[in-house]
């Protein structure tokens, strides 16, 4: 899988891939809709990053690193299209996210998820994320907060 940085031509994939899993397991919350519709101004322009995973030229996955706060960057909006799940592509995106955060000098990475997403939680734990108190999730579905020391 080739991983490439955001470009305006790929913008629609960020929204489509995330809406796919959100609608499958939950609902698209107002904060989701806002970020997905305004990803350039709300993520890129504020110091964050968006990446896409391509397989044979076709976008199959994405993730965002939201702008850091005090050396801590948030991993968000990570998605792999359903047809390509369970094949290691999520692990490749997560490894890329961690490597990118380290290269950018961040000290920690946090994420919000939901315990219902057992495969995702397993993956995060496998990569060293630990559960921390969840007092500030921006999502209704966000019933777990995890942190990785970089």
What does this structure look like?
The protein is an alpha+beta fold. 35% of the residues lie in helices and 31% in strands. A seven-stranded mixed beta sheet has the order 1-2-3-4-5-7-6. It is globular and about 40 Å long. The relative contact order is 0.15.
Short description:
This protein is α+β, with helices and mostly antiparallel strands and 150 residues long. The chain contains five helices and seven strands. The chain has helices spanning 11-25, 30-37, 39-44, 89-103, 118-126, and strands at residues 2-5, 49-55, 58-69, 72-80, 108-113, 130-132, 144-149.
Low-confidence segments, given as residue ranges, are: none
Number of strands: 7
Main sheet overview = 7 strands, mixed
Counting structural domains, the number is 1
Strand order of the largest sheet: 1-2-3-4-5-7-6
Rough shape?
Answer: globular
Q: CATH class, anyone? A: Alpha Beta
| C-alpha-based Rg, rounded | 14 Å
Estimate the helix proportion, in percent: 25-40%
Q: Class by helix and strand content? A: alpha+beta
In N-to-C order, the SSE pattern is EHHHEEEHEHEE
Distance between the termini: 24 Å
Determine the number of helices (DSSP H or I, runs of at least 4 residues).
5
Q: Any guess at the CATH architecture?
A: 3-Layer(aba) Sandwich
CATH H level: which superfamily?
Answer: Gcn5-related N-acetyltransferase (GNAT)
As for the CATH topology, it is Aminopeptidase
Mean pLDDT across residues: 96
């Amino acid at each position: 899988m080739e991983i490439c940085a955001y470009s305006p031509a790929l913008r629609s994939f960020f929204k489509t891939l995330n809406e796919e899993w959100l609608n499958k397991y939950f609902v698209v919350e107002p904060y989701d809709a806002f970020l997905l519709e305004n990803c350039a101004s709300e993520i890129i322009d504020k110091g964050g990053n968006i990446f896409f995973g391509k397989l044979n030229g076709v976008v199959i996955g994405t993730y965002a690193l939201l702008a850091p706060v005090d050396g801590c960057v948030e991993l968000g909006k990570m998605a792999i299209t359903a047809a390509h799940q369970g094949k290691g592509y999520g692990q490749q995106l997560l490894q890329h996210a961690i490597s990118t955060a380290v290269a950018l000098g961040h000290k920690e990475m946090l994420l919000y998820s939901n315990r219902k997403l057992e495969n995702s939680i397993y993956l995060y734990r496998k990569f060293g994320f630990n559960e921390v108190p969840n007092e500030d999730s921006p999502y209704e579905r966000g019933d777990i907060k995890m942190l990785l020391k970089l």
